[in-house]
Amino acid sequence: MIITNSVQQTNQVEDLTMTETPSNDIGQVGHNQITTYRQFWPFYLREHARPENRAVHYFGTLLSFGALAAGALVNPWWFLAAPFAGYGPAWFGHFVIEKNRPATFTYPFWSLISDYRMTFRFVTGQLGKDLKAAGVR
Fold first, then answer.
1. Contacts of 82 (CB under 8 A, 6+ apart)
2. Sequence-ordered list of residues with C-beta below 8 angstroms from that of 86, at least 6 positions apart, any chain
3. At what angle do helices 51-73 and 108-123 cross, to 10 degrees?
4. Using one digit for the tens of pLDDT, what is the confidence trace for 22-73?
5. Crossing angle of helices 2-11/108-123, nearest 10°?
Protein backbone atom coordinates (compact mmCIF):
# COMPACT_ATOMS: atom_id res chain seq x y z
CA MET A 1 0.00 0.00 0.00
CA ILE A 2 2.79 2.44 0.88
CA ILE A 3 4.63 1.62 -2.35
CA THR A 4 1.47 2.23 -4.40
CA ASN A 5 0.83 5.55 -2.66
CA SER A 6 4.45 6.59 -3.20
CA VAL A 7 4.14 5.90 -6.93
CA GLN A 8 0.87 7.81 -7.10
CA GLN A 9 2.39 10.67 -5.12
CA THR A 10 5.45 10.80 -7.38
CA ASN A 11 3.28 10.78 -10.51
CA GLN A 12 1.22 13.67 -9.18
CA VAL A 13 4.10 15.86 -8.03
CA GLU A 14 3.11 18.39 -10.69
CA ASP A 15 0.33 19.38 -8.29
CA LEU A 16 3.00 20.60 -5.84
CA THR A 17 3.96 24.24 -5.90
CA MET A 18 5.70 26.01 -3.05
CA THR A 19 3.44 29.05 -3.34
CA GLU A 20 0.16 27.20 -3.69
CA THR A 21 -2.26 27.68 -0.86
CA PRO A 22 -5.28 25.53 -0.20
CA SER A 23 -8.46 26.81 -1.71
CA ASN A 24 -11.76 26.66 0.09
CA ASP A 25 -13.47 25.06 -2.91
CA ILE A 26 -11.74 21.76 -2.19
CA GLY A 27 -13.43 21.45 1.19
CA GLN A 28 -12.48 18.84 3.72
CA VAL A 29 -11.55 15.81 1.68
CA GLY A 30 -11.69 12.53 3.55
CA HIS A 31 -8.46 10.66 4.24
CA ASN A 32 -9.32 7.87 1.77
CA GLN A 33 -10.32 10.34 -0.97
CA ILE A 34 -6.95 12.11 -1.31
CA THR A 35 -5.57 11.64 -4.80
CA THR A 36 -3.62 14.87 -5.42
CA TYR A 37 -1.14 16.97 -3.49
CA ARG A 38 -3.56 19.90 -3.73
CA GLN A 39 -6.00 17.83 -1.62
CA PHE A 40 -3.27 16.53 0.66
CA TRP A 41 -1.88 19.90 1.81
CA PRO A 42 -5.02 21.05 3.69
CA PHE A 43 -5.39 17.54 5.15
CA TYR A 44 -1.77 17.67 6.29
CA LEU A 45 -2.31 21.04 7.96
CA ARG A 46 -5.40 19.78 9.79
CA GLU A 47 -3.32 16.85 11.05
CA HIS A 48 -0.97 19.49 12.51
CA ALA A 49 -3.63 21.69 14.09
CA ARG A 50 -1.92 22.15 17.45
CA PRO A 51 0.83 24.79 17.44
CA GLU A 52 2.91 22.66 19.82
CA ASN A 53 2.92 19.81 17.31
CA ARG A 54 3.96 22.16 14.53
CA ALA A 55 6.77 23.53 16.75
CA VAL A 56 8.09 20.01 17.34
CA HIS A 57 7.98 19.45 13.58
CA TYR A 58 9.94 22.65 12.92
CA PHE A 59 12.56 21.51 15.42
CA GLY A 60 12.84 18.08 13.78
CA THR A 61 12.98 19.54 10.29
CA LEU A 62 15.77 21.93 11.29
CA LEU A 63 17.63 19.05 12.97
CA SER A 64 17.34 17.04 9.77
CA PHE A 65 18.74 19.99 7.80
CA GLY A 66 21.64 20.07 10.25
CA ALA A 67 22.26 16.34 9.84
CA LEU A 68 22.17 16.67 6.05
CA ALA A 69 24.61 19.59 6.17
CA ALA A 70 26.91 17.66 8.52
CA GLY A 71 26.73 14.70 6.13
CA ALA A 72 27.78 16.87 3.22
CA LEU A 73 30.43 18.90 5.06
CA VAL A 74 31.78 16.76 7.90
CA ASN A 75 31.19 13.05 7.52
CA PRO A 76 28.77 11.08 5.31
CA TRP A 77 27.67 9.03 8.32
CA TRP A 78 25.62 12.06 9.42
CA PHE A 79 23.24 11.35 6.53
CA LEU A 80 22.01 8.34 8.53
CA ALA A 81 20.94 10.67 11.36
CA ALA A 82 18.71 12.84 9.16
CA PRO A 83 15.62 10.57 9.16
CA PHE A 84 15.84 10.05 12.93
CA ALA A 85 16.35 13.76 13.55
CA GLY A 86 13.30 14.63 11.49
CA TYR A 87 10.90 11.81 12.19
CA GLY A 88 11.69 11.34 15.89
CA PRO A 89 10.35 14.72 17.03
CA ALA A 90 7.55 14.65 14.44
CA TRP A 91 6.23 11.29 15.56
CA PHE A 92 6.48 12.39 19.20
CA GLY A 93 4.34 15.39 18.22
CA HIS A 94 1.71 13.19 16.64
CA PHE A 95 1.50 10.45 19.24
CA VAL A 96 1.90 12.59 22.38
CA ILE A 97 0.69 16.10 21.48
CA GLU A 98 -1.75 15.80 18.57
CA LYS A 99 -2.79 12.23 19.41
CA ASN A 100 -3.16 11.18 15.80
CA ARG A 101 -1.41 8.92 13.31
CA PRO A 102 1.39 10.51 11.24
CA ALA A 103 0.48 11.01 7.58
CA THR A 104 3.91 9.55 6.77
CA PHE A 105 2.50 6.06 7.18
CA THR A 106 0.00 6.52 4.34
CA TYR A 107 1.53 9.31 2.25
CA PRO A 108 5.32 9.10 2.77
CA PHE A 109 6.47 11.29 -0.12
CA TRP A 110 3.85 14.02 0.27
CA SER A 111 4.34 14.02 4.03
CA LEU A 112 8.10 14.51 3.72
CA ILE A 113 7.65 17.35 1.24
CA SER A 114 4.99 18.90 3.48
CA ASP A 115 7.22 18.80 6.58
CA TYR A 116 9.76 20.94 4.76
CA ARG A 117 7.07 23.07 3.14
CA MET A 118 5.37 23.78 6.48
CA THR A 119 8.67 24.78 8.08
CA PHE A 120 9.61 26.99 5.12
CA ARG A 121 6.23 28.71 5.09
CA PHE A 122 6.39 29.23 8.87
CA VAL A 123 9.87 30.77 8.68
CA THR A 124 8.79 33.07 5.85
CA GLY A 125 5.55 34.10 7.61
CA GLN A 126 3.25 32.52 5.02
CA LEU A 127 1.88 29.56 6.97
CA GLY A 128 -0.91 31.48 8.70
CA LYS A 129 -2.93 31.95 5.52
CA ASP A 130 -2.55 28.25 4.66
CA LEU A 131 -3.76 27.25 8.13
CA LYS A 132 -6.72 29.58 7.86
CA ALA A 133 -7.68 28.25 4.43
CA ALA A 134 -7.45 24.69 5.78
CA GLY A 135 -9.73 25.57 8.69
CA VAL A 136 -7.03 25.45 11.36
CA ARG A 137 -7.16 28.15 14.03
1. 64, 67, 68, 71
2. 60, 61, 63, 64, 115
3. 100
4. 333 344 555 568 999 999 999 999 999 999 999 999 999 999 999 999 999 9
5. 50
